[in-house]
Amino acid sequence: IEDKLGAGGMGVVYRATDTKLGRQVAIKVLPESYAQDPDRRTRFEREAHVLAGLNHQNIAGIHGLEESNGVYYLVLELVPGQTLAERLADGALDMNEALRIGRAIAEAMENAHERGIIHRDLKPANVKVTPEGIVKVLDFGLAKAFRDEPSAAGDPSLSPTETLDSTRAGVILGTAAYMSPEQARGKPLDKRTDVWSFGCVLYELLSGRKAFRGETTSDYIAAVLGREPDWSALPQSTPANVRALLHRCLQKEPQKRLRDMGDARLELEEAPVLPALVAAAPRRQPILIYVGCLAVGAILAIASAWTLWHEAPQPPTVTRFSIDLPPGETLSSVSQISVALSPDGAKLAYVADRGGRTQFYLRPIDRLEAKPIPGTENAVAPVFSPDGQWVAFLQAQRWKKVALSGGAPVTICNAPPGAYMYAAWTPDDNLLFGVYPASILRVPASGGEPQPLFSASAGKGERAYWHPYLLPRGQGVLFSIRTPEMDSYDDGLVAVQPLPVGQRKILTEGGHKPIYSSSGHLVWARGGQLLAAPFDLARLAVTGPPIPALDGVLMNQANGATQFSLSTNGSLVYVPGGAIVVGRQLVWVDRQGKAEPLPLPPRRYLHPRLSPVGRNIAVETEGPNHDLWIYEGERDVLTRMTFDGMSHWPVWTPDGKRLTFRSWRTGDFSMWWMPADRSGTEERLTTIGIRQSAASWSPDGRVVAFTQASPDTGGDLYVLEMDAERKPRPLVQTKFNEGSPRFSPDGHWIAYTSNESGRNEVYVTPYPGPGPKIQISTDSGADAVWKGKGGELYYRTGDRMMVVEVATQPSFHAGKPRVLWEGRYNHGTNSSCGAPGPSSSNYDVTPDGQRFLMVKEGEQDIPATRIDVVLNWSEELKHLLQETKENKP
Predict the structure, then answer these.
(1) Is cis: bond before 437, omega within 30 of 0?
(2) Per the count of CB atoms within 10 A, which of 185, 221, 249, 298 is most buried?
(3) Which sign, positive or negative, has the C-alpha torsion 621, 625, 628, 632?
(4) Left if phi > 0, otherwise alpha if psi is -120 to 50, otherwise beta: which for 266?
(5) What are residue 476's DSSP bridge partners?
């Protein structure tokens, strides 16, 4: 290897000498990180097979595909000379030269298409002209077989590798200025996409300018989808048939476009050859001719300058297109914000589930390929840094950030109790997020301890602040307010807090997730709509009535999550679907997995618990407010138990006379209990400790096991003896997160969940201890529940209910875990805030172990598979509000 020639998305290219055959070659090496990715490696191998199937003087050839010690590389024909991109840096080419090169490109693409191969990334940078004038088309690494039928000749371009995600609809590959409209929209592609790109290249060769231009990638795509090239930029000497060819190549609808590159080649072959320019003018010319030329030139220059000076700038084009996620990939949840757009509108991040693995994916708007962001597994709430080079997120109760250029995630801070899963990254490099009770906190993105930026005044009746958004120039923060009176998230308030100080004021009642549009408007969500109103930045005031700006934005009415993101430059992404009311059902599931619903109305049920006495069920319902209910099975009556809107996770005492629960009423999770017959008031169990969640009672009712948070050790297991002191005692306290402690039926053992192995597993330890720690699960597990009569322990691994035979006397013994049944039931993730460690089990089991009480999602809670994009949406918003103003009586 002699020197490095360049680098691209699929490999680094070096100049080298083939010592066996004594020739200069190009070596294209797949990066080591790509070689570990089966999809990328397969694409690299596909490039070799595709190129090997092409043999044409205008296509750069391949000499071999090699592998050495895990390093994959191609041995390619070395093509000297300049790329067309380099030649075009000096302006348009001579007409005859441009047409000659165009004919050679058309012939090369015709040959590839005849073999069932499309290039998909034809552009000036992928075409070289050698010093001898030979045209070579490079880099078929993104090629795709467009014929579905198998080739009789065994064409390798039609191999099964062509069905990878990178070639499917909804996955973008290509370059913005040259990609076809269908490519920009993520639609299925055929050879007509190359026809479009060829038209773009030929136009640029003739005119010296791109057919479609813009300052940003969003502008480029908007131009491709919504504008026409400037046909007047073509030289006057352009042959008529070439003009017609360009018009046919650049038809936005594929059905109206030129269908075959062979026809393009024929048109260029028939184009007339122009006479060569005279090298030198005659020596003697009448001086009047020179004077006339100067005068005409001056007039043309003045006219041109006048035209440029007075030419009105064209407003950005509003362009819509959809991104369909690849088959097998879905937006992970309608319960959390799943989409985020970078401030410049150039990058999209979304949270998706692919094969049961949830993580962030990054997709530049001008590309069709989305790539996973390493280190974001099971994370939520993506938010871009102001420069678009980082993404922050909430993962395992920590705010983190990861560089999009690569590297491991970096922890910003521990999420304090009551942190909401929505944040803003400000231009001064701080992260803002809301917490309960009502406060907006600020933490440096470089790391540190969160500090209050502002909080609710005492007696205001404001329960929580969330959705912070820093206004331009930092003069104030927009945010949402949650109140105790809210029956729906559509009843929320939108407010602004002036900075550095000032009187907080309500901007509008009824809505949430406010944001400022570059068009000069306040935008917020309500009932699956985006509403907008004129907003005065100087006065921080709404100056006109709101209007519906966009319908059909996916919103979960149960938790207010509305799936949209607006960039600083006015582009919009959103998930279509409108407001959905997703109820849940309580169902009985037998040991064979057969389900039978209980006769209860659909609601957002969580954490059902069977009473030790009778047929009663305690259950939580979630929404803007969380409360506890008791269902009396014998009378078929559902009775509300709490009314504070802040109560979670019911747990029966062993005698069935009391309910234990956690509540936010003290400003943090604390443990309470109350009579199940409502004959008395609620009582706090202990005032010692923070963020406590009761999980289980000892059989004698003297000790409650619970989780408690610590700034140093995360979620830990504690017990509270119900004596006069009521002083909590740590049971399992490590640097890892523990949760879901459950007493065994005999009270001598506690099953719990810990993530000390790097994933959740179920363990058993003796009570009161000390003693051994015995791992029960073998392939991840959580939410252990004992069979009431003993002999079995149950836990969940994904959608599988597992069972383990156990004995607790005279010593503990566990058998091999096995799958009892499998089914999709809710896992109990809280919509706004979770437990300090692994969550409490979201199911219960009858004492005989024959039936499981599960929570089943409603039919409408189906993950979305499409994201809609509106480039320059703020321009549409301007016109919409102006039309409303003009039409107002």
Answers:
(1) yes
(2) 221
(3) negative
(4) alpha
(5) 498
pLDDT of residue 886: 61
List the alpha helices (DSSP H) in 592-663.
none
| The pLDDT of residue 760 | 87
CA dihedral over 59, 60, 65, 70, signed as positive or negative? negative
Is the preceding peptide bond at 272 cis, omega within 30 degrees of 0? no
Query: What count of residues does the chain have?
Result: 889
Q: Which helix (H) or strand (E) holds 48?
A: helix 38-52
pLDDT of residue 779: 85
State whether the Cα torsion 255-261-265-266 is positive or negative. Answer: negative
Residue 11 near residue 4 (C-beta atoms within 8 A): no
CB 610 within 8 A of CB 846: yes
What are the angstrom distances between the C-alpha of 190 and each of 76, 182, 484? 26, 10, 57
Residue 226 and residue 82: Cα distance in Å, rounded? 32
- pLDDT on residue 458: 54
Model confidence pLDDT, tens digit, residues 583-598:
789 999 999 999 999 9
3 state SS of 467: strand
Unique residue bearing structure tokens 């059905």: 255
CA angle 95, 101, 102 (to 5 degrees): 85
- Tokens found for residue 501: 């100080």
DSSP code at position 757 = T
Would you say the C-alpha torsion 245, 251, 256, 257 has a positive or negative sign? positive
The tokens of 700 are what? 């004698």
pLDDT of 668 reads: 74
CB 323 within 8 A of CB 867: yes
Rg for the chain (alpha carbons), in Å? 33
Which residues, other chains included, contact 47 with Cβ-Cβ below 8 Å and sequence gap of 6+? 10, 74, 140, 141, 143
The Cα 17–Cα 19 span in angstroms is: 6
Question: What residues pair up with 23 in beta bridges, in sequence order?
Answer: 18
- Supply the DSSP string of 825-868, one letter for each residue: ------SS---SSSPPPS-EE-TTSSEEEEEEE-TT-----EEE
Q: 685, 720 in Cβ contact below 8 A?
A: yes
Question: How many Cα neighbours within 13 Å face the side chain of 431?
Answer: 35
How many Cβ atoms are within 10 Å of 232's Cβ, its own excluded? 7
Give the whole-angstrom CA distance, residue 562 versus residue 466: 13
Are the C-beta atoms of residues 516 and 532 closer than 8 Å to each other? no
Distances (CA, A) of 611 to 342, 614, 631: 50, 7, 10
**pLDDT tens digits, residue range 377-426?**
888 889 999 999 999 998 877 899 999 988 899 999 988 766 777 899 99
pLDDT attached to residue 287: 45
Report pLDDT for 354: 80
Q: Tokens at residue 253, please?
A: 């609808």
Q: What is the pLDDT of residue 854?
A: 96
HEC states along 280-320?
Answer: CCCCCCCHHHHHHHHHHHHHHHHHHHHHHHHCCCCCCCCEE
The torsion angles phi and psi of 184, rounded to 5 degrees, stand at -65, -30
- With beta carbons less than 8 A apart as the criterion, state whether 510 and 526 touch: yes
Enumerate residue ranges in the chain where pLDDT < 50: 9, 145-174, 276-296, 299-300, 302-312, 830-837, 860-861
Asked if 126 and 83 count as a contact pair (C-beta separation under 8 A), the reply is: yes
3-class SS string, 534-554: EEECCCCEECCCCEEEEECEC
**3, 39, 121, 344: the active-site residue:** 121
Residue 557, CA distances (Å) to 530, 562, 621, 726, 774 in order: 14, 9, 13, 40, 42
Residue (of 778, 791, 796) closest to 841 by Cα position: 796
Angle at 866 between CA 863 and CA 868, to 5 degrees: 135
State the first-to-last Cα distance of the chain, in angstroms, to the nearest integer.
77
Instruction: Please indicate whether residue 677 is annotated as part of the active site.
Output: no
Question: Which secondary structure element, helix H or strand E, spans residue 439, and what is its range?
Answer: strand 439-444
